[in-house]
């Protein structure tokens, strides 16, 4: 009798715990979908996280069914909150880092969608929140005349300067728009950078990662130490000499600015 009671108790406990696991396990898998079939849809939040984590690569446009999700992400609070969280973390790191006594400590900032926001253009019918490809000529025309500041990154920029770092701006923008870009940066409140590196004729044909890696390597060869590196594309933060720490600004709209 006692053995029977024990068996009933154990069976009841196992059933209860498996029910609890099914109900409360936050990572239990959703119903499996067949990758590659026509009805396969990536959840839009999973798409965005995949982009930010560099799990999704070489994508060209966002899934069309994610347009309203991306629009809401950018235009409501979450994008601003995500940028602010990154800027605060980076500023804390800038404040705490021990300076190198032999090398010049610098921070590298990307410009497009890092210091300057082109959200007005990304929201226009030309890009339509990423359902269309981003092309360089209209993108930079808009950037040099209508760009707005990314406020949290301006605060980070100023904090980095106050902590004694030199600033290098490393952009894929062509040298031909240098003056207009400087004006746009100044209009947005940025000043005091040590170097502004733009893409010259000799850089044509290089991938974004190859171009930025080569420029960072030149800096390291000049005895700079890249303490921090901030950009919205993984091509800003991967390759050679990425820096001691990298900070990824969100950008779920485009993966590349096309020539
Ligand atoms: Mg950028």
Describe this structure in words.
There is one protein chain. This protein has helices spanning 2-24, 44-52, 67-75, 77-96, 119-123, 136-146, 151-162, 178-188, 208-221, 234-237; strands at residues 104-109, 116-117, 134-135, 148-149, 166-174, 195-199, 224-231, 245-248, 257-258. It has a single domain (44-258), classed as Rossmann fold, CATH 3.40.50.1000. Strands 6-5-1-7-8 form a 5-stranded parallel sheet, with helices on both faces. Strands 2-4 form a two-stranded antiparallel ribbon. It is an alpha/beta fold. It binds magnesium ion.
Termini Cα gap? 81 Å
Mean pLDDT, all residues: 89
Rg (CA only): 23 Å
Bound compounds: magnesium ion
CATH superfamily: HAD superfamily/HAD-like
CATH class assignment: Alpha Beta
Number of continuous helical runs: 10
Number-wise, the strands total 9
Return the CATH topology.
Rossmann fold
Low-confidence stretches: 14-18, 34-40
- N-to-C SSE string, H for helix and E for strand: HHHHEEHEHEHEHEHEHEE
Q: Mind describing the biggest β-sheet? A: 5 strands, parallel
Task: Give the tally of structural domains.
Answer: 1
What is the oligomeric state here?
single chain
Q: Choose one word for the global shape.
A: globular
Strand content: 15-25%
Instruction: Tell me roughly what share of residues is in helical segments.
Output: 40-55%
Summarize the helices and strands and which ones pair or pack.
Layout: H1 2-24, H2 44-52, H3 67-75, H4 77-96, E1 104-109, E2 116-117, H5 119-123, E3 134-135, H6 136-146, E4 148-149, H7 151-162, E5 166-174, H8 178-188, E6 195-199, H9 208-221, E7 224-231, H10 234-237, E8 245-248, E9 257-258
Parallel strand pairs: 1-5, 1-7, 3-9, 5-6, 7-8
Antiparallel strand pairs: 2-4
Bound molecules: magnesium ion.
């Amino acid at each position: 009798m006692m053995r029977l009671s024990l068996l009933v108790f154990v069976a009841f406990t196992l059933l209860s715990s498996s029910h609890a696991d099914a109900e409360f396990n936050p990572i239990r898998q959703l119903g499996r979908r067949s990758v590659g079939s026509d009805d396969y849809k990536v959840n839009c939040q999973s798409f965005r996280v995949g982009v930010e984590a560099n799990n999704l690569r070489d994508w060209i446009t966002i899934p069309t069914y994610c347009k309203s999700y991306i629009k809401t992400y950018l235009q409501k609070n979450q994008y601003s909150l995500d940028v602010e969280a990154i800027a605060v973390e980076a500023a804390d790191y800038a404040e705490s880092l021990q300076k190198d006594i032999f090398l010049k400590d610098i921070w590298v900032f990307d410009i497009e969608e890092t210091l300057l926001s082109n959200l007005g253009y990304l929201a226009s019918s030309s890009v339509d929140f990423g359902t269309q490809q981003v092309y360089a000529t209209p993108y930079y025309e808009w950037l040099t005349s209508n760009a707005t500041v990314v406020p949290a990154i301006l605060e980070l920029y100023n904090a980095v300067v106050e902590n004694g770092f030199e600033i290098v701006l490393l952009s894929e923008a062509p040298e031909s728009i240098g003056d207009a870009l400087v004006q746009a940066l100044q209009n947005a409140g940025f000043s005091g950078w040590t170097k502004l590196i733009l893409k010259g004729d000799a850089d044509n044909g290089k991938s974004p990662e190859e171009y930025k890696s080569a420029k960072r390597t030149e800096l390291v060869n000049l005895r700079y130490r890249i303490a921090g590196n901030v950009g919205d594309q993984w091509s800003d933060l991967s390759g050679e000499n990425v820096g001691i720490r990298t900070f990824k600004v969100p950008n779920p709209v485009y993966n590349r600015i096309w020539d």
